[in-house]
Amino acid sequence: xxxxxxxxxxxxxxxxxxxxxxxxxxxxxxxxxxxxxxxxxxxxxxxxxxxxxxxxxxxxxxxxxxxxxxxxxxxxxxxxxxxxxxxxxxxxxxxxxxxxxxxxxxxxxxxxxxxxxxxxxxxxxxxxxxxxxxxxxxxxxxxxxxxxxxxxxxxxxxxxxxxxxxxxxxxxxxxxx
Length: 177
Hints:
By secondary structure, the protein is of the alpha/beta class. It has one domain (about 5-175). The chain contains 5 helices and 8 strands; from the N terminus they run αβαββαβααββββ. The strands form 3 sheets. Strands 2-1-3-4 form a 4-stranded parallel beta sheet, with helices on both faces. It has a two-stranded antiparallel sheet with strand order 5-8. Strand 1, helix 2 and strand 2 (about 65) form a beta-alpha-beta unit.
């Protein structure tokens, strides 16, 4: 992925998993105090946020990791990364909570969001979590098990030649279509 901006690289990963299929340039926005991307990591066992920040910095961009998105005007950022984690160490965004509304409103004005989670697409909405699926064009179809070992590109798309092995937390990974 050499030469691809960090945000595009992460968006590419999201497209492989079906989480987001747009990889074009981020809309022009005024960065908040010179920070281009906000990384919200309420996950109990943080890890992805730092890796995302490192990738952004390595590619000449800037980011800020936060535990709370409410104080921020998301429209000041070129993108938002949301790292919710994997069960049993995940964070559940309550349905129509201030955080959920803030993310939905940001999407409504063209904001770019990368949402990383194990349960937010299928399981969380069943137990009071916010249903983000419609906003991302994702249909969660099953709660899954400990069955994620690789990610493979989708035939007929620009991702079709991509293949990634996965080693990490692996409990009840939602299945998507």
